Amino acid sequence: MSRKKPKIFLSYAHEDIGMAKKLYQDLNRYGLDIWFDTESLEVGELWETAILDAIEQSDYFIAVLSSNSMTKKGYVQKELKTALKVVDLFPEDTIYIMPVRIDDCLVKNRKLKRHHWIDVFPESEYQKGLNRILQVVSPDTFTIRNKPTELSSADVHDMLKTHGYYDRDRNPAGKGVDHQYSVQKINGDKVLVDKATGLMWQQGGSLKAMKYENAKYWINKLNQQGYAGFYDWRLPTLEEAMSLMEPEQKTGNLYIDPFFDTKQDWIWTVDQVKGESQAAWVVYFGSGDCGWDAFEDYNSVRAVRSGKSAK
């Protein structure tokens, strides 16, 4: 039996609609039931009644806090007061109100201050904050960073430990991901959809190894062609690429599921190396680990996309 999706109300000051919409879109990407006024209100609906009903029926109330919402008068204060009344109906150990600060605002409301808040600022902390929200509202959701960044060796070590990824040298005790692969053929192109991570991968990839800049050009060509009917393919982050690493050798003596083509034994990632101006992280399925190569080195390409993105 599938688990019922929790109802989540997203409250914000309209001056903060940009960040509120980003939170809505990112949480919605994981299939969550988010009540967001610009998306949830029907034409002609009595908006005040609909909002109060949605708050009372919600399982979680995300309060987007900012210098705007904490100081302005308006309906956002009424939403918060309603939620603080609703929370009294829950047992004390139940999480209902989730304050999320988007700037360094001062929280003065005494009742609200009783609830631990999280920060999604600065931008470098956004994904960590999003993951903490998901850990509460959807603990079974597997979250992987999909935005490029610079990583040090220490960063990589921590990431491997956090996700439990196998790496022969850095994390030999890692068990890897319990994948749920589905092989599909779309417009004659083979892809693998992994329900465990929400990612869609090329079953194969480039037939030849290439330099890093050529790898990015190769991805652009893939999108121009509309591979498998999609136009948002990209180089994987190191987190995404290492999610494919199996803790033991499979077909072709590679540490990757036999569903995949074995020609792409070393693949580029989009993540660059902190402290190195011309180098990127690479996943070595032939040896069961990851490392980094200079942009002028040669590796294969396997493109990825977020499986739930629009076609």
Task: Tell me what you see in this structure.
- With 311 residues, this protein is of the alpha/beta class.
- It has 2 domains: 7-137, Rossmann fold (3-Layer(aba) Sandwich), CATH 3.40.50; 150-306, Mannose-Binding Protein A, Chain A (Roll), CATH 3.10.100.
- It has 10 helices and 13 strands.
- The chain has helices at residues 17-28, 37-40, 47-57, 67-71, 75-86, 110-113, 126-137, 153-163, 212-225, 238-242; strands at 7-11, 33-35, 60-65, 97-101, 118-119, 150-151, 181-186, 189-194, 199-202, 266-273, 279-284, 289-294, 304-306.
- The protein has a 5-stranded parallel beta sheet with strand order 2-1-3-4-5, with helices on both faces. A 4-stranded mixed beta sheet has the order 6-10-11-12.
- The model has no long low-confidence stretch (mean pLDDT 92).
